[in-house]
Fold this protein.
Amino acid sequence: MIIFSGGTGTPKLLNGLRKVIPEENLTVVVNTAEDLWVSGNLVTPDIDTVLYLLSNRIDSKKWWGVADDTFRTYELMKSLGHNEKMMLGDLDRATHIMRSDHLRAGKTLSTATMELSRSFGVAAKVLPMSDDPVSTMVVTPGGTMHFQDFWLGNQGKPEVLDVYQDGVDEASISPAVLEELDNEDEVLIGPSNPITSIGPILAIPGMRDILRKKKVIAVSPIIGTEPVSGPAGKLMSARGMDVSSVAVAQFYKDFLDVFVIDERDNIHDQTFDNLDCKVMRADTLMKTVDVSLSLSKFVVDEFGKMD
């Protein structure tokens, strides 16, 4: 199975999936449009969350970073007048240094990620969506800024006028991802932000065409009119989308086979009637591992019914 991942929602689902499907049979294609160079090293937040989860290193309270990490390097640099854009933990920083050394040696981001996966003992294939640089940019009344400057630097507070991915039109699907897509028919789109987490993956030229030939299940990151977490609502509104599960389904409609919405969502099933996909309800909030496991079994069963 191939999983499109970004943010924290999809890794929570992945935490259940790896208990249902052998990890070596999972391929995780990860958003890289939120990547940023910090203090000379490339930080890939969404890739790192997946790597830390699958290597049992993740801080499960925050769903990012390494459990029990310290921040002595960050704090010392700050005391010396160097303010980093991201608060990086010491153990987390080691990952970025290793990745960046691979890149400085001429390796692609895909190869660097696979090297880190091996070092961490991760059995699943964790792959960046592209080896080319793509950046999510947020347009605000005060100017255009990188997503990390909007979300971390400004705590997501500025009004959002537009969102776009710089460089995506020139980017290519990574060869490693293309190879996996050639060999696998089942694609799961996790409950991550459709604009800045899943959207960049879909925006790479050719990706939607490939997905139209696959069996695709997507899990909604919206319950009612609110995102489960993060700035998805604000960003969807800036794109002229309603903040609702049906708007997410419409965004995926050209390739979507099954759409899973939360059992608490008060949207009527008839709202999806003009979309050519099956709509199912389940507990998608995943506050516990047991819920993640239950949702994972539900998704795997649905794929089985599509055979």
In short: The mean pLDDT is 95. Residues 289-305 form the longest helix (17 residues). The radius of gyration is 19 Å. The chain has twelve helices and 14 strands.
